[in-house]
Amino acid sequence: MSFWRRLKEDLETAHVHDPAARSNLEIALNYSGLHAIWAHRLSHKLWQDPNTRLLARTVSQAARWATGVEIHPGATIGRRFFIDHGMGVVIGETAEIGEDVMIYHGVTLGGRSLEPVKRHPTVGDRVTIGAGAKILGPLMIGSDSAVGANAVVVKDVPEDSIVTGIPGKIRQRTPEKQEPLVDPATYIDPAMWI
């Protein structure tokens, strides 16, 4: 994919995920999560060559300083990934993120081992991860799932699930829970508003 098509896709993704997005210029200039993703693409490319790994780490640290988002250059990230607000996001070296994933500020995709093995989460496609969530270890978050704000997840999550709480409790989504309720007198599950 060409640089310009990828840039256009990134800007469209921001418009889809953020109702506050007003213009492509505003997004390109002011969205720190997007700046972090752009820097990650460069650092990840550098990381592929063992001779440029120091430079890759330097680029990622400069991006961390500028954006408040720390993405290790070894992490693998799919297309149309979006970080809303950005500040405090940490994505570890062996993390793998699918396509059409959205995460909010304060999210950690962290490890539970000091060994040089796969130690960070794998996130499937079309996953939303709420603010402050911690997903720890070499586990799998299944596609089409949602992780609630401040949830702590330490075990695999099947596809099409919702995870909330500490430790994270998993439940399958049902058709009636996929759309927000409109009657204010009816209880609304906070996980629906991640």
UniProtKB/TrEMBL annotation:
Pathway the protein takes part in: Amino-acid biosynthesis; L-cysteine biosynthesis; L-cysteine from L-serine: step 1/2
Catalytic activity: L-serine + acetyl-CoA = O-acetyl-L-serine + CoA
Keyword Amino-acid biosynthesis: yes
Pfam families for the chain: Hexapep
Presence of keyword Transferase: yes
Key words, A-Z: Acyltransferase, Amino-acid biosynthesis, Cysteine biosynthesis, Repeat, Transferase
E.C. no: 2.3.1.30
Family: Belongs to the transferase hexapeptide repeat family.
Name of the protein this chain belongs to: Serine acetyltransferase
Organism: Kocuria gwangalliensis
